[in-house]
């Protein structure tokens, strides 16, 4: 099979890949120089839609509506956009071998692609229950959610199992967003997770108490402190029950599993330096190998603000790291300087009629403010994280655009705090003054 050669190759077709392609175009890539290779069948899209409007019974999102870069208010890159720009959009193509020494990628179908500069944007894959040896985890109607094909299968099951029962395994982002989406579809939902409260990676016990109460009021059952250890299936191979470690058995027509992600670095094992589970980069997303960059979920990069090396699995960083890497590629070719990546962590989620944002770092003491009762009519509340006498992180539910801007600013500026009581009393007004 003929070898295809490109000056630049983006490996991956997700959020980072799409934002990288746009930046290549802004920087003036010539027709024929750039290829984007993805195992997905569609052009890059805003992945967050898959666990939200893609699953709604009304106001449903479908492609081409949410191709990148609409999620950040940018231009929507339809497949035609790539053609117009002379960018080769190579879809349905899984790369199964990457040889960084000879700068060659090989696809499952045996095609080879060579490059001068590679941008690795392979993202994450889901951790599967079969990885922990859970019995019966191969039953039909047990779903994971990462790509649009996964979402399509789930949508189909929601239609066929109308008013059925679902068990959601995991209390993180997928767990909380999918429980809400299925409940909105009138499915009877039970969440199961091992921790004492949901989203323990970010939420304090007080923040989690609001969401757990709110979900309970929406009819979601929550079972904490245990895990799924097995599944039963019927003669058609469809899941019927979930066995829990504490001995309980839950009926289920649909199971959705969200027990975490794993960065897709396998292709590069032993060829590139890794750290904290990801591919180690500098502030320009350059890896330990010349002309190879890594962006998005797979990159472990210097987080300048905290003087630490971190990996971030969120969309805002996927977009910004991609733009930074492409700017750095052109700057290095032209011998011009580019500023170091100076990232302020930003995470958000939306479920039911709730919407929260978080900026900064969730370390140190916490102060809760506002009305965090699950039955409050405004459900406006938040939390500050205080370390070494300074605000380092800020969370707000149901903020206005101005308040969310203030939240970002307070986390970036890190103002000194004289009294925690003052923070609790002033609430978001404290951030708005900064
Ligand atoms: P991403 O996963 O987007 O893309 C990786 C791409 O590489 C995929 O197209 C994949 O097929 C391709 N690929 C991988 N290996 C390949 C190979 N060998 N050959 C060819 N192609 C290959 N974040 C947030 O901040 N807010 C939110 O609301 C959400 N919501 C959300 C919902 C759901 C359902 C998921 C799964 C994730 C989120 N996220 C999120 C996280 C966010 O979407 C995620 O951090 C970014 O998509 C990461 O972008 P990447 O480009 O790194 O990976
Ligand atoms: P997560 O890390 O947010 O949550 C994993 C959860 O799995 C844990 O909180 C825990 O409750 C649970 N868990 C772990 N082991 C378990 C077990 N054996 N049995 C039952 N539960 C177990 O991961 P996720 O929710 O699967 O999300 C996957 C990826 O998608 C992450 O990268 C996440 O950042 C991303 N994502 C982000 C958003 C967002 O930012 N709004 C939304 C959806 C997905």
TrEMBL record:
Record's function text: Catalyzes the conversion of monodehydroascorbate to ascorbate, oxidizing NADH in the process.
Catalytic activity entry: 2 monodehydro-L-ascorbate radical + NADH + H(+) = 2 L-ascorbate + NAD(+)
Protein name (database record): monodehydroascorbate reductase (NADH)
UniProt entry keywords in alphabetical sequence: FAD, Flavoprotein, NAD, NADP, Oxidoreductase, Redox-active center
FAD/NAD(P)-binding domain segment(s): 6-322
Superkingdom of source: Eukaryota
EC number: 1.6.5.4
Pfam families linked: MDHAR3-like_C (PF21791), Pyr_redox_2 (PF07992)
Family recorded in the similarity comment: Belongs to the FAD-dependent oxidoreductase family.
Main EC class the enzyme belongs to: oxidoreductase
UniProt domain Monodehydroascorbate reductase 3-like C-terminal: residue ranges: 344-431
Cofactor (UniProt): FAD
InterPro entries tied to this protein: FAD-oxidoreductase/Apoptosis, FAD/NAD-bd_sf, FAD/NAD-binding_dom, FAD/NAD-linked_Rdtase_dimer_sf, MDHAR3-like_C
One GO MF term: monodehydroascorbate reductase (NADH) activity
């Amino acid at each position: 099979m003929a070898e295809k050669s490109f000056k630049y190759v983006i490996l991956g077709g997700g959020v980072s890949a799409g934002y990288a392609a746009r930046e290549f175009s802004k920087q003036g890539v010539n027709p024929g120089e750039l290829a984007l290779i993805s195992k997905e069948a569609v052009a890059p899209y805003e992945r967050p839609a898959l666990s939200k409007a893609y699953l709604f019974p009304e106001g449903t999102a479908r492609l081409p509506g949410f191709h990148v870069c609409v999620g950040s208010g940018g231009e929507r890159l339809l497949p035609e956009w790539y053609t117009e720009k002379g960018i080769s959009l190579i879809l349905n193509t899984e790369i199964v071998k990457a040889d960084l020494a000879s700068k060659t990628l090989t696809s499952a179908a045996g095609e080879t692609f060579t490059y001068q500069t590679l941008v690795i944007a392979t993202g994450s894959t889901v951790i599967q229950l079969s990885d922990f040896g859970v019995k019966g985890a191969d039953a039909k109607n047990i779903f994971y959610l990462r790509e649009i094909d996964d979402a399509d299968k789930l949508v189909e099951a929601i239609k066929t199992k109308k008013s059925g029962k679902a068990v959601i395994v995991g209390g993180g982002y997928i767990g909380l967003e999918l429980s809400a989406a299925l409940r909105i579809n009138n499915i009877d939902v039970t969440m199961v997770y091992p921790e004492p409260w949901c989203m323990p990676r970010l939420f304090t016990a007080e923040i989690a108490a609001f969401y757990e109460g709110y979900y309970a009021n929406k009819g979601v059952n929550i079972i904490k402190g245990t895990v799924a250890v097995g599944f039963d299936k019927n003669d058609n191979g469809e899941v019927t029950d979930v066995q829990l470690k504490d001995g309980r058995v839950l009926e289920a027509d649909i199971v959705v599993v969200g027990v975490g992600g794993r960065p897709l670095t396998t292709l590069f094992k032993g060829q590139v330096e890794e750290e904290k589970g990801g591919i180690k980069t500098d502030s320009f997303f350059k890896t330990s190998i010349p002309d190879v960059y890594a962006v998005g979920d797979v990159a472990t990069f210097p987080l300048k603000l905290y003087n630490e090396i971190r990996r971030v699995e969120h969309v805002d960083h996927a977009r910004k790291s991609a733009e930074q890497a492409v700017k750095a590629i052109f700057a290095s070719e032209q011998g011009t300087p580019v500023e170091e990546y100076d990232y302020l962590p930003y995470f958000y989620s939306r479920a039911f009629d709730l919407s929260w944002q978080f900026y900064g770092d969730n370390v140190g003491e916490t102060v809760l403010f506002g009305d965090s009762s699950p039955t409050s009519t405004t459900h406006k509340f938040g939390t500050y994280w205080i370390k070494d006498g300074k605000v380092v992180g800020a969370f707000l539910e149901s903020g206005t655009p101005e308040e969310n801007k203030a939240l970002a600013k307070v986390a970036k500026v890190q103002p000194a705090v004289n009294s925690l009581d003052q923070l609790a009393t002033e609430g978001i007004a404290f951030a708005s003054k900064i």
